[in-house]
């Protein structure tokens, strides 16, 4: 009997290794189809299941001038994946009784045009209709200025609205800048300090930051563009511009800590978190596939929570499949290489491979 159990155990271990090797090969193949230049900027990719890393690799260079290879510990700018943190910060404040997502923004910013008709919920779900500042021609005039949250809001608040609140879903960075400003007004902390104390420190994300070019960041990956004549350093932008819509930095390991913190209700209660991961309806009753800070889609009929990011020199993508507890992350330090579709393809392969095994 002991011999049979021993053989079954050995067989199980061997089977695990085979599945892991197959998944590794498939992931490598998918990544290398896009990230072909190992002497150029590259990316870091990770697959985790049940909170544990089962695949993690770095491809390409962290710094071209110094010929430094990327490692899985490197710090990347997240771009719009920042919106996840902003949304959870709002829900933390709601649990503290300091705001409600159905509050009109005029309660916090009395002079905001038509602020009595726009709610925090509208900002979270990209249904506010306010002008997205990234589409304004005058953005170049302020791109390298140090802006306060108020001056950033003043930059776009008097622009004509695109539609009435709740009429349609239209991805909007201005809404998340407004949310950052409201977080500051309500909490009495800067956005950066609030995220650090209420999220980064609680989740033990010790290598995550509000982005800056003015302090040394250990193992920072440098960002690049690709032009006709080759790679160039990323365009400089003051991080007070993307602010709460796109100014955070992190590592693959810290982003897994973030996902685990959400799964274990470390930051907010499960009941509160449902608000972030629920689909909502427009005024006409039509459902759209965005919660608070996450796109809500499907892979092989399995619901996913996902979001990408794009900021000068960087592109990012994260996909979480709740039913299988699979988290897949892609971080790129050139906006010439998008990890969006790659990360979704790896998530699909991981789901199929791990479901077969289980």
**What would the principal axes of the Cα set say about the shape?**
globular
What is the distance, rounded to the nearest whole angstrom, between the alpha carbons of the first and last residues?
Answer: 24 Å
Structural class: alpha+beta
- In the CATH hierarchy, the architecture is 3-Layer(aba) Sandwich
CATH superfamily: DD-peptidase/beta-lactamase superfamily
Question: How are the strands of the biggest sheet laid out side by side?
Answer: 2-1-15-14-13-12
CATH fold-level label? Beta-lactamase
For the CA atoms, what is the radius of gyration? 21 Å
DSSP strand count: 15
Poorly predicted runs: 11-15
Count of domains: 1
Number of helices: 10
Mean pLDDT across the residues is 94
Mind summarizing the main beta sheet? Answer: 6 strands, antiparallel
Order of helices and strands: HEEEEEHHHHHHEEEEHHEEEEEEH
The CATH class: Alpha Beta
Signal peptide: 1-20
Protein name: Beta-lactamase family protein
InterPro entries: AmpC-like, Beta-lactam-related, Beta-lactam/transpept-like
Organism: Pedobacter montanisoli
């Amino acid at each position: 009997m002991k011999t049979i159990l021993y053989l079954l155990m050995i067989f199980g271990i061997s089977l695990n290794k085979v599945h892991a090797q197959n998944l590794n090969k498939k992931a490598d193949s998918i990544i290398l189809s896009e990230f072909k230049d190992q002497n150029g900027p590259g990316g870091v990719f990770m697959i985790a299941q049940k909170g544990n890393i089962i695949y993690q690799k770095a491809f390409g260079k962290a710094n071209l001038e110094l010929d430094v290879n990327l490692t899985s510990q490197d710090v990347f700018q997240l771009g719009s994946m920042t919106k996840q943190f902003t949304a959870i910060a709002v829900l933390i404040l709601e649990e503290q009784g300091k705001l409600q997502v159905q509050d009109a923004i005029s309660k916090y910013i009395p002079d905001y045009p038509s602020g009595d008709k726009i709610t925090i919920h509208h900002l979270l779900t990209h249904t506010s209709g306010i002008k997205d500042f990234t589409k304004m021609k005058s953005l170049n005039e302020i791109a390298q200025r140090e802006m306060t949250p108020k001056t950033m809001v003043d930059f776009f608040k008097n622009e004509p609205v695109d539609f009435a609140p709740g009429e349609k879903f239209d991805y909007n960075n201005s809404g998340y800048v407004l949310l950052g400003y409201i977080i500051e007004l309500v909490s009495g902390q800067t956005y950066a300090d609030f995220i650090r104390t209420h999220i980064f420190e609680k989740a033990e994300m010790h290598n995550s930051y509000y982005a800056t070019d003015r302090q040394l960041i250990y193992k920072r990956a440098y960002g690049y563009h690709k032009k006709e004549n080759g790679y160039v350093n990323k365009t400089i932008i003051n991080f007070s511009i993307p602010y709460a819509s796109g100014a955070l930095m992190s590592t693959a390991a810290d982003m897994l800590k973030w996902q685990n913190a959400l799964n274990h209700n470390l930051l907010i209660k499960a009941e509160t978190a449902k608000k972030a991961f629920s689909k909502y309806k427009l005024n006409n009753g039509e459902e759209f596939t965005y919660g608070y800070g996450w796109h809500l889609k499907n892979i092989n009929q399995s619901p996913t929570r996902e979001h990408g990011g794009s900021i000068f020199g960087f592109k990012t993508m994260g996909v979480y499949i709740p039913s299988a507890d699979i988290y897949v992350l892609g971080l790129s330090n050139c906006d010439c290489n998008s990890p969006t579709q790659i990360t979704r393809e790896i998530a699909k392969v991981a789901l199929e491979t791990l479901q077969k095994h289980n």
